[in-house]
Design goal:
mainly alpha, rod-shaped
């Protein structure tokens, strides 16, 4: 936003407007790239956490199912 004041000021030479707009566009492209990189990092972290959560839940479910089968087998054998 600080660059917005630079392009909104009156200029004497028309070429200065082009230069200001070019600099502003370049700065905005850089900010957009930084924001996309930050978003990608957050998305990667969320994906990793989700996979870890699913793996843990699957392991817990497997252990519970195994315990239930063993209990049912013991009951059936008795």
């Amino acid at each position: 936003m600080s660059r917005l004041s630079t392009i909104s000021k009156a200029k004497t030479d028309p070429a200065d407007y082009v230069k200001a707009m070019t600099e502003f566009a370049s700065a905005q492209a850089e900010v957009a790239a930084e924001n996309m990189a930050a978003f990608a990092e957050v998305a990667k972290k969320v994906q990793t956490d989700t996979v870890d959560l699913m793996m843990t839940a699957g392991k817990d479910f497997s252990e519970d199912a195994s315990a239930a089968v063993k209990k049912a087998t013991k009951k059936a054998a008795a």
